[in-house]
């Protein structure tokens, strides 16, 4: 990722707002990012590699957010594919 950003949800979790506790003892922060896709997963057109991507929710309920060297955003059932790697 070229840029990693703090999402309002990131600050809520770190402050311990009700229902927003940190999900794991070690968490690499930030939920939002932008950059170029390095790889794609199953069901994603391989031509997406190298294209610009915008990531949201990278750290939501996961230990590694967009401040990590690599982050992964998976598709959730019932939602369209994310514009991410």
List keywords for this structure.
85 residues; mainly beta; 3-stranded antiparallel beta sheet; 1 helix; 3 strands
Main sheet characteristics: 3 strands, antiparallel
Could you give the order of the helices and strands? EHEE
- Give the structural class: mainly beta
| C-alpha Rg (nearest Å) | 13 Å
Oligomer description: single chain
Share of β-strand residues: 5-15%
pLDDT averaged residue by residue? 76
Q: Which segments are poorly predicted (pLDDT under 50) over 5 or more consecutive residues?
A: none
Euclidean distance between termini CA atoms: 10 Å
Number of helices: 1
Write the layout of secondary structure elements.
Elements: E1 3-5, H1 8-15, E2 32-36, E3 52-55
Antiparallel strand pairs: 1-2, 2-3
Protein architecture, described:
A three-stranded antiparallel beta sheet has the order 1-2-3, with no helix packed on it. It is elongated. The protein contains one helix and three strands. It has one helix at residues 8-15, and strands spanning 3-5, 32-36, 52-55. It is mostly beta strands. The model has no long low-confidence stretch (mean pLDDT 76).
